[in-house]
Amino acid sequence: MRPKENYIIKMNIEQHITSVVKAAVEALYGEVADSQIQIQKTRKEFEGDYTLVVFPLVKMARKAPEAVATEIGEKVVASAAEFSAFNVIKGFLNLSLDQKFWVERFEEVAANDNYGVAEPTGRTIMIEYSSPNTNKPLHLGHIRNNLLGYSVAQILAANGHNVIKANLVNDRGIHICKSMVAWLRYGNGATPESTGKKGDHLVGDYYVEFDKHYKAEIKELIAGGMSEEEAKKQAPILLEAQEMLRKWEAKDEEVRALWEKMNGWVYDGFDVTYKTLGVDFDKVYYESQTYILGKGLVEEGLSKGIFFRKEDGSVWIDLESDGLDQKLLLRGDGTSVYMTQDLGTALQRFEQNALNGIIYVVGNEQNYHFQVLKLILKKLGYEWSDDIFHLSYGMVELPEGKMKSREGTVVDADDLCEAMISTAREMSQELGKLDGCSEEEASAISSMVGLGALKYFILKVDPKKTMLFDPRESIDFNGNTGPFIQYTHARICSVLRKAAEQNITFESEKIACELLPEEVELVKMLCDYPATVAAAGEAFAPSMIAAYTYELCKTFNGYYHDHSILREENEAVKKMRLALAQQVARVINRSMRLLGIDVPERM
Q: What is the mean pLDDT of the chain?
């Protein structure tokens, strides 16, 4: 049996090897289940490329594991030309693929302009991320949310899905009114233009100002003999905010005009931050337009007996039989809660966009909320509730501790980005990586490196984990960092530029030399890229892309340290090494784009 030519890049290599091994096993012992053919990469301390775990086959073969492995190895090598050798270690069959196989795979990689991009699946997936409040600027926690959401969107698109990037802006409610009240009381007509501040920062200042005066009023009321609990409810500034919310809901023209003006300032500010972070959205929803959605579903649930009404008129669902508790869906005064809105928006999005799935990128403090959301929709009979996924992530902490937005101790996203770029410039200059660059080039590289460091440091961590972000550690040019990967790409681009200056052509030529084991290892890693993208898409895990890219760069740098490229005397070897370096750079570029990270050509 000889495999077809040019099949591997469209087909995972491990899947191909599994099919060859399965055919050999069935020729020897009869029909076998796919689950019995367990293929994995051979561990580095052993000779071979892929390993078959023989133990699941011993019973049907009725022989010792070593004998079964030997028989299968002999059959595979005899029947498939690409297998050059095998060895047996106890119950493990290690298979080696020949040079021709890896050369052909490399040529397929180089010839494929869409390498790592899957064929269209016809599936439409919406991913909702960011979801900011319009009473404060974006902070470090939002950065993790935005980077994670955008990267997952890129990875899903590379897996052939039609992806809709959505943002639900929390633009209404008591927290928004708090900033508005404080601006009316203490703002003296301040605007972004008059203060020189970004609009989201300006509005955020008044949110902090509200909290400061609220605490002072509570203290004063307590000193006058009121209990702390009562003081918190009766503080004049809070009562003023509550009255403003009532006016907003009654569509008071003056309140609505102020709300639109201050929200407009915030949106302008958000747009600047989003541009800096390199994230965008296909659709933006506003809570002010969606908060009443879902009331129809509540009525539907009542009519079906799924929900029940209490004496005060509020509507609930009893989930105690599902191991949860009772959940409020509509207040006694008829106003909706977040769950009401999320039920309505989920239905609206699935119907309007013909979705095959929706992913909510929301912090892990909302795990219970999304568990309940899916369960209620399921009880209402919406089978697509199974296609809702909550991509839960942990908090981001700094060496100094946690952040509190009301107290103004958050790490502002704009300030952090600016600091990262500044630190990247400082460290790049110290290491001589900006030598010979114009001011424009130095500025562009510093921005690329600073933001790349931030993005990579956050995305390399499993989203479920709470993470500690250390800005300076993230900009290290050595180790598992964005700058290390960016520098590797720039180093390869430098080699390729010098080759062009020397008029060395290599792109269209066939490989006409033997590959060293280190070169075969790089080819193997390049071949792993599509499977890595597929796995990252299945798990919604940018960290898989980050880990793959780091290992590729680390392997290339070790190879580059030990083997000359441009000074290689054998022309065929030189051209092969240039072609190999070029493909490594191309895959680095593609994988980093999936993380939303740019890579420089000079550094």
A: 93
* Residue 435 structure tokens: 């030598």
For residue range 487-539, what is the model confidence (pLDDT) as tens digits? Answer: 999 999 999 999 999 999 998 778 989 999 999 999 999 999 999 999 999 99
CA neighbor of 164 nearest in space, from 358, 345, 343, 344: 358
For the stretch 130-159, what's the b/e string if a residue is b when 16 or more beta carbons lie within 10 angstroms of its beta carbon?
bbbbbbbbbbbbbbbbbbbbbbbbbbbbbb
Q: Report whether 594 contacts 151 (CB < 8 A).
A: yes
Distance CA 216, CA 220 (A): 6
Taking CA atoms, 31 is separated from 19, 34, 78, in Å, by: 13, 10, 20
Whole-Å CA distances, 261 to 168, 183, 253, 460 = 19, 12, 12, 39
Report the percent of the chain where pLDDT is more than 70: 96
Q: Are 546 and 461 in contact (CB under 8 A)?
A: no
* Distance from the first to the final alpha carbon of the chain: 50
Q: Are 240 and 230 in contact (CB under 8 A)?
A: no
Please check the confidence at residue 409 and state whether its pLDDT lies above 70.
no
162-169 vs 124-128, strand pairing mode: parallel
Please state, in angstroms and as integers, the Cα–Cα distance from residue 458 to each residue in 146, 224, 367, 421, 539, following that order.
11, 49, 21, 16, 17
- Measured N-to-C along each axis, helices 338-353 and 295-303 cross at an angle, to the nearest 10 degrees, of 100
Whether domain 413-594 has CATH 1.10.730.10:
yes
DSSP state of 515: P
Beta carbons within 8 Å of 545's beta carbon, 6+ residues apart: 151, 155, 459, 532, 533, 536, 591, 594, 595
In eight-state DSSP terms, residue 34 is G
The residue type found at 117 is V
Length of the chain: 603
Q: Residue 588's closest CA among 560, 547, 552, 559?
A: 552
The reported pLDDT for the residue numbered 523 is 96
Report the Cα 271 to chain-centroid distance in Å.
20
Structure confidence at residue 405 (pLDDT): 42
The Cα–Cα gap between 140 and 333 comes to 37
- Reading the block at residue 93, the tokens are 């069959």
The mean per-residue pLDDT over the stretch 29-57 comes to 94
User: Residue 214, Cβ neighbours under 10 Å: how many?
Assistant: 20
* Distance, CA of 165 to CA of 179 (rounded, Å): 29
Determine contact, residues 454/420, Cβ cutoff 8 Å.
yes
Predicted confidence band of residue 10 (pLDDT cuts 50, 70, 90): very low
Task: Give domain limits for the chain.
Answer: 13-97, 173-278, 413-594
Q: Sheet containing 50-53: which strands, arranged edge to edge?
A: 38-41, 50-53, 92-97, 83-89
The CATH classification number of 13-97 equals: 3.30.1360.70
Other beta carbons less than 10 A from residue 84's beta carbon: 14
**Strand (E) positions, 105-205?**
124-128, 162-169
